[in-house]
């Protein structure tokens, strides 16, 4: 036989064998997880959720092939509490992070540590916000909670060329261009390196936008919404409409930029042959009121604040066709659910529910309600702006909330999706309110939550607060020495 033909045939068989081996290995191996966490993206603001104002074609395609958890909840809708609950599977009064800018105890059992102990490569890129040592301070490996591949910063709201730290190095680096795009490119390189590795990966991409400031997305995306007039939600007061219109132009621009990043990530997974055996999760830490009920940002117990997008893409287990689920998945439930989907035992420290068997159709959904709360109002919802402690329940149809004085809010979200009609005390709803109240008090008993004034918990956890009852940005560094980091994370005004 011609030696050149023989060599070519051998090379072809070798290449075909490698591809076949990789395909078989992918089908038999533990699944990878790519967890995309965005900041302040409310559930209502995607094309697939019915918002005709915003362009999210890649997320719409992802939703068409994913489980769409339409009733996903951020139980304490603010940055650090959600992130700490995601990392630990615990409720805020257990892990102690019920305010921004405080430290999550490094002795906690976290999702990064558990995946690592079970043979996973672990990685984290982007916003962290559970370190409590200043928003731009170096985070040493001892406080990285089990993540090995590390390119993160505590917190910034300057989404262009922002800083980060890599690995265990205290030297600041800078993302070149818009953060989400640069971080996505980095993740794509990480994914390309995985074809040479046998161990599965658990990788978190934590994107800082679309959190305000809204008008900082790349010009290409801002121009898409320039001068557009949007359909505004019915619960936005007339005197807020002009500001909402302007803010939405920037909010949506961030979203469309991120949507393109999601498309790039999916393309890379498919290109590298990783798509069949990779679970993709897309979600947010909380929503944004964006003028609804006359307010902005989060913390408050309205849908725009507490409900978040939540897609789980895993065709190997869920099939190729998208489905909707009304499962009331909450922040502490994420860790046990992902562990359940990968066949890893859930640690006893976890308080959240494992929804994996429900989502796989192997168990009936018997979860009828989930807890929402504000332990201590702070920051953008301080007491002078109406902020107050609350505990509540969200069910498939109702939102019920108590403050320290007693029943505060009751909404029938099916009949009143914009939550304009408070039904507390209505005789026709007396039986429903009574049951919700009993269920809430029972849930608080299970959680060992005495529902005390917020300052009692601040004293218990020994947090330092300022005159507005907010944890200040000034901290001590990891060596216990004073630092000068007073940054809020927001870009300087020009």
Features:
2 domains; single chain; Arylsulfatase, C-terminal domain; Alkaline Phosphatase, subunit A; globular; 494 residues
Write the layout of secondary structure elements.
Elements: H1 3-28, E1 32-39, H2 57-63, E2 67-69, H3 79-88, H4 92-95, H5 111-117, E3 121-127, E4 149-153, E5 163-166, E6 172-174, H6 179-193, E7 201-210, H7 219-224, H8 241-271, E8 278-284, H9 303-306, E9 310-313, H10 315-318, E10 323-325, H11 334-341, H12 356-359, E11 370-374, E12 390-394, E13 398-403, E14 406-412, H13 430-446, H14 454-461
Parallel strand pairs: 1-7, 1-8, 2-10, 3-4, 3-7
Antiparallel strand pairs: 2-9, 4-5, 5-6, 8-9, 11-12, 12-13, 13-14
Helix pairs in contact: 6-8
Describe the overall structure.
The protein has 494 residues and is of the alpha/beta class. The protein folds into 2 domains: 29-368, Alkaline Phosphatase, subunit A; 390-452, Arylsulfatase, C-terminal domain, CATH 3.30.1120.10. Helices cover 31% and strands 16% of the residues. The chain contains 14 helices and 14 strands. It has helices at 3-28, 57-63, 79-88, 92-95, 111-117, 179-193, 219-224, 241-271, 303-306, 315-318, 334-341, 356-359, 430-446, 454-461, and strands spanning 32-39, 67-69, 121-127, 149-153, 163-166, 172-174, 201-210, 278-284, 310-313, 323-325, 370-374, 390-394, 398-403, 406-412. The strands form 2 sheets. It has a 10-stranded mixed sheet with strand order 6-5-4-3-7-1-8-9-2-10, with helices on both faces. A hairpin with a 2-residue loop joins β13 and β14. α6 (179-193) runs parallel beside α8 (241-271). Residues 10-25 and 476-483 have low confidence and may be disordered.
């Amino acid at each position: 036989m011609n030696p050149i033909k023989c060599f070519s045939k051998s090379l072809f068989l070798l290449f075909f064998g490698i591809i076949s081996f990789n395909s078989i290995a992918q089908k038999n191996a533990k699944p990878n997880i790519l967890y995309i966490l965005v900041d302040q993206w409310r559930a209502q603001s995607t094309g697939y959720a019915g918002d005709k104002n915003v362009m999210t074609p890649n997320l719409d395609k992802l939703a068409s092939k994913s489980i769409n958890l339409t009733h996903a909840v951020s139980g304490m809708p603010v940055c650090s509490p959600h992130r700490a609950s995601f990392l630990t599977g615990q409720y805020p009064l257990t892990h102690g992070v019920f305010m921004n800018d405080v430290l999550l105890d490094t002795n906690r059992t976290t999702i990064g540590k558990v995946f690592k102990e079970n043979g996973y490569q672990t990685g984290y890129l982007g916003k962290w916000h559970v370190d409590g040592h200043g928003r731009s301070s170096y985070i040493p490996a001892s406080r990285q909670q089990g993540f090995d591949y590390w390119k993160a910063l505590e917190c910034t709201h300057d989404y262009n060329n922002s800083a980060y730290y890599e690995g265990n190095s205290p030297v600041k680096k800078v993302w070149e261009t818009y953060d989400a795009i640069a971080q996505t490119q980095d993740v794509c390189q990480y994914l390309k390196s995985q074809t040479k590795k046998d161990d599965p990966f658990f990788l978190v991409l934590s994107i800082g936008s679309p959190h305000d400031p809204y008008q900082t997305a790349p010009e290409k995306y801002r121009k898409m919404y320039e001068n557009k007039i949007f359909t505004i939600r019915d619960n936005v007061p007339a005197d807020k409409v002009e500001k909402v219109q302007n803010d939405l132009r920037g909010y949506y621009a961030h979203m469309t930029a991120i949507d393109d990043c999601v498309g790039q990530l999916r393309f890379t997974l498919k290109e590298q042959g990783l798509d069949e055996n990779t679970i993709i999760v897309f979600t947010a830490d909380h929503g944004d009121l964006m003028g609804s009920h006359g307010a902005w940002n989060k913390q408050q117990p309205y849908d725009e604040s507490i409900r978040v997008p939540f897609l789980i893409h895993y065709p190997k287990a869920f099939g190729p066709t998208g489905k909707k689920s009304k499962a009331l998945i909450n922040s502490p439930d994420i860790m046990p659910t992902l562990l359940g989907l990968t066949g890893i035992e859930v640690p006893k420290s976890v308080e959240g529910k494992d929804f994996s068997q429900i989502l796989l159709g192997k168990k009936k959904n018997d979860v009828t309600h989930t807890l929402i709360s504000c332990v201590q109002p702070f920051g953008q919802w301080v007491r002078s702006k109406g902020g107050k402690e609350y505990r509540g329940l969200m069910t498939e149809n109702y939102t019920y909330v108590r403050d320290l004085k007693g029943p505060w809010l009751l909404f029938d979200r099916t009949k009143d999706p914009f939550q304009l009609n408070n039904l507390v005390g209505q005789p026709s709803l007396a039986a429903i309110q009574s049951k919700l109240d009993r269920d809430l008090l029972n849930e608080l008993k299970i959680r060992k939550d005495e529902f005390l004034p917020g300052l009692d918990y601040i004293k218990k956890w020994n947090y330092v607060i300022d005159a507005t009852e907010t944890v200040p940005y000034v901290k001590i560094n990891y060596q216990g020495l004073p630092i000068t980091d007073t940054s809020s994370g927001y870009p300087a005004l020009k």
